[in-house]
Amino acid sequence: MIIAVDGPTASGKGTIAKALAAHFGLPHLDTGLLYRAVGRQVFLDGGDPDDSGDALAATAFPDSLLDDPHLRDEETGGLASRVSVHPAVRQALFERQRSFATQKGGAVLDGRDIGTVIAPEAEAKLFVTASVEARAQRRFLEMRDRGVPVTLAEIEDDLRRRDERDRNRAVAPLVPAEDALVIDTSALDREEAFAAALEAVNALT
Ligand code: C5P
Question: Where does ATP bind (predicted)?
Answer without folding.
Answer: 7-15
